[in-house]
User: Fold this.
Amino acid sequence: MLTFRLPNVLNEVVRAHRDQFIRQTKPKNGVGVFVFPCRKLVFNYCERSGSSKSMMEYLQKSAIDFAKENPQIEVVVQPRPSRHPIIRAFYTNGYQKTKCVRKCSVDEIPEVVKSLRDHSGHKLRRWNKYVISDTPSVRGIYSPFHVNEVHSISDLKPKN
Amino acid sequence: MFTSRSIQYAGSLAAPISRRVGYLGGLRLMATESHAPIKSRSKAAAAGPTTYSALIARLDLKFEDPKTMEQVCTHKSYEQGRLACNDRMQWVGKRVLNLFVGEHLAAKYPNLSVEMLQDLQHAYFGLSSLAEVGRHFGMQPALRWESVVKEAPEVGLTKVLGKSVQALVGAVYQEQGALAAKDFVHKHILGTRALDVESIMQIKNPKLMLVALTKEKGLPRPVARILKETGRFTSSPVFVIGVFCGAKMIGMGFGSSLKMGEYRASKDALIKHYAKEIKDFNFPTIGEGEEADVTFFPPKYQDSAARA
Assistant:
């Protein structure tokens, strides 16, 4: 005698075309581990011009130490004749930043280098919210000023 | 008439920098004579001798030789495969990566079916997602490859970049062992992304599926009840429907009609079941290494358990 069994509905899994799920999920820098955003710094100078004088002094004095302290950044020194000295920074997200240091003294150049190194690589933008979250709360961020029971210090019991 | 070479600098700058060619620490100095004029940005962004050591330092790897990294970033299409390429590393690395990702997903989502796990893995750890990871590392300018199509040099970049990341995992595995590879995968690839399981699931008939699921688990038949409603006879009603198994609510959904709310509530119940996450778990690979005294307790394979 033949028995009739209904097909298991739970096995009817709909598989969409695999390419539909190509997700460009970007890794969140800092969540698991931090990848330094600045990947390359290029120092361009001119040997003859006077505007490159402080740049050349910096390169001779502190550039090597800087490169040793930051092994994760590729430091490149290239002569660029008949041009003002510039520092060009390349970031992992494809962003580039260039800073001309023609007017900088020898003490100011390390600060410029530091600011380029510490830049995140994202364009400057205005954040209109003070909390940015993947899981935004429906009722808003907690505020201690908007609760019914306000905590006061006299509530603390003395240690006896 | 002074030429550029005869200019003397006073003080500490005795000789022009252009005369000194070589590597000093992390710097690469290029001679003015042999250097081609700087044409465009892409020239400045090309790979150099210190790119690979910088990449190693950025990822906190412990390769002794930057040549390993160079090999990781070299695809077989570069110079027709005459140089050391990442072929074999990629083959091994793909399997190593899939092992660690697979055991993580299988332990984390006990209720997902095999097809959904496969889709999840493909979406978040397939070649195009790994290409994003590679871009984040800064591997794209370090790649050495050639496109098949000469006129469009970017065609195939995603695939090559994804394969390079797999090759990187393989290189870590072969140079430093399984534990280091596992650590690398967990830190850089698994740990940095939040997985959205809901987007993977395509549920065609949620009410029918929910009835079958509750029957299989031995729960009472699901019943939909209105939790809240507003504007029933207006042009924009809102119903909040809950699906109950006995007295317990298993799913909740809203809609502009009762049917829609019930559909969404059933879908919500199914998603809550399938996308259930386990927070604390041990991997089968935990028994190796220093933590050898920790025993692994395998989870029940709830999805593939015998049907009642």
Summary: Chain B has three domains: 3-34, 41-199, 203-274.
